[in-house]
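Dear colleague,

Thank you for sharing your sequence with our group. We've completed the structure prediction you requested, and as agreed, I am returning the results in plain text so they can be pasted directly into your records. Please verify that the sequence below matches your submission; if there's any discrepancy, let me know and we will rerun it promptly.
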Amino acid sequence: MSQLGRRRNFLKLSVLAVGAVPTACYRDAVDPPTYSEEQSAKYFPQSVASGDPRPDSIVLWVRVEDAARPDGDAQIELTMALDPEMKQAVDLSADALYMVTTAATDHCLSARVGGLNPDTTYYYRFRYRTLDGVAQSRIGRTRTAPATDATR
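Please find the predicted structure tokens below.
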């Protein structure tokens, strides 16, 4: 192979190597690690709660505590499912998927989630992105009220 051919191969490999670096560097920014249950628990010190069941809605409650950002807003993501493993996801409206809580409310969030089926058990979890990863609340369980025309 001539010196020109070796130089071209070297340049091709250099471009490929440089192109691969950003993907590795930004992977954590795009997909941060999820904390363990023990690590996550400190961000959700009161865990989760639900109440005020209606045939088509439920109220969910959570509080986020982040010592690194005590005065900042906290964006919280809600996921709901029909099974405790959270594999049978429930479609939620955009305003239920991502909610924001502030220091003025002590980072407490109470939200009514609608569009649910009557007399159905739902499982739910909140996720909060910290500076270093993602904290998840424990999985809560709730049940909507029976339909208004139900006999029980």
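Summary note from our side: Confidence is low (pLDDT under 50) at residues 10-28.

Kind regards,
the structure core
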